[in-house]
Amino acid sequence: MTRTARRTLLLAGVVVAAAIGSVALAAAPLGAGPPWTVVLPLCALPIVLAVAAGYSVPACRASTTILVAAADFAGIALAVDIGLLLVLLLFGRIPTGVQIDLVNAALVGLLFVATIAGPLGRRAARSARALVAGVRRTPDELLADFGDRSADGIPAAELLRQLAESLRRDLNASVVRLWWTDDEAAGVLDQQVVVPATAPRSVDRLDDTDLRVLSRAGVAGNGWLRAWLPKMLPDVPQPQAPQLRIAPAVYGGRVLGLIEVERAADTGAFSAVEERALGEVARRLGIVLRNRALDAALKATLEDLRRSNAALQASRTRLVTTADAERRRIERDLHDGAQQHLVALAVGLKLLRDSTEGTPGADTELLDELDEGVREAIAALRDLAHGIYPPLLRDAGVVEALRAAAKRTPLDVTVTAGELGDLSEPVRAAVYFCCVEALQNAAKHAPGSTVTIQLELEPGPRLTFCVADDGPGFDAAGRTGHGLQNMSDRVGALGGELEIRSAPGRGTSVIGTVPLSTPAPVTR
Prior knowledge:
- Strand 8 (497-502) and strand 9 (508-515) form a beta hairpin.
- The chain is elongated, with a radius of gyration of 41 Å.
- By secondary structure, the chain is an alpha+beta fold.
- It has helices spanning 2-27, 36-53, 57-61, 63-91, 98-133, 139-149, 156-170, 208-214, 222-228, 272-356, 364-388, 391-395, 398-407, 425-445, 482-493; strands spanning 175-180, 191-195, 243-251, 254-263, 412-417, 450-458, 462-469, 497-502, 508-515.
- 60% of the residues lie in helices and 13% in strands.
- The chain has a five-stranded mixed sheet with strand order 5-6-7-9-8. Strands 2-1-4-3 form a four-stranded antiparallel sheet, with helices on both faces.
- It has four domains: 2-133, no CATH class; 139-301, 2-Layer Sandwich (Beta-Lactamase), CATH 3.30.450; 316-387; 396-515, Histidine kinase-like ATPase, C-terminal domain (Heat Shock Protein 90), CATH 3.30.565.10.
- Helix 10 (272-356) packs antiparallel against helix 11 (364-388) and helix 13 packs parallel to helix 14 (425-445).
- Its EC number is 2.7.13.3.
- GO terms for molecular function: ATP binding; phosphorelay sensor kinase activity; protein dimerization activity.
């Protein structure tokens, strides 16, 4: 998409450059126009700007519009070229002296006329239509602003009121009424815009039965309404009854809106041109109303997805926070509870050993074995507690905690890190436990490999960690597990990302990125 847009922008630049060059070439035989030292940079400028615009996202999105504008500019240049050639034919020879000044003036005049010819022609066409049929603007012109601004969050009632005012003015109507609904599934049209606002409202609601009748109506008048929908006719005597024209806005066989145009009885009748214009406006209005409904549904869906995603992230954050708090509690309970009991037991065994030393019949060897067993149990319990939530992580930081964890593994592990600053506890815990999980996976699946752990700060700010081994590797696309899911949940709870890079025979890298700002909690 970007490559195509850049080619389109470059083509637009070339078209503009060619247009400028063609005018200079046409003016050269007449001795008019700027010198080539000015023309050549002017020709190069649009190409340079087009290349630069290729790196602008808004320009790439508008590349087609820019190309159309360039083509319009080329058309103006062509008109100027033809005008200059006509000037040369009128002179019959190369102008000299004072005549060159006249050619320069003619060149400026041609540029001016060619520029304003298009808008003047369109305005003249509208005036001609107004004189012939009373319609000053085409249906496309009537709905241009409505269609363009419908996605800007402007209320539908305001947009429809503006459309009704345009219709009233351009169709020489006394009253214009518009029906629509905010809920297509309701099967009713119950909202109205009445212009002028002082005019009486007609029926308050058009129900599903009325809409089924209207879906086959097209542009209809008093006779059709009298036969099929008499409740829309005003309750006045026939000679004074106003002229009515209705046009349903239909899309996909469903009536999404209705236009009612009313003229006084003593005003000229609706012409065929006006009825066709009204029908075209109604058709376009159906498309616009449908697009607006789709836009609203899309925005609602995106908002639901955003809230669901925020709720999911908040849920993951709560789970990880709760798990870490539970880890700290278990580590504290083991340290302050079971470990202290074992220490007391070891002290008691030592006292018993000392008190029975030299006593005949005392089994000192058994006491020594019990003492050694208790000490080993204390060491194992301490290692277990530190593995659950190491105090070193809280006291010395993530780097020292990882180096301590690396010493407990059978692998050759190197930990490198730059200046990380003061990391928050959730970030420290997420990075530490993800790296330890990756170390355990390496010890299990790549025994004997060399592992490097790298931590570094990046702009954002964010902390990036990488645990890489030179083991046998695996097919990352086909491998899932609780360990990888736990790492992903930890990083995702902080708004970060986790990536596994591996291939058979090429080792494995676990790369994670954690933003250093905590995600805002979701509000519902």
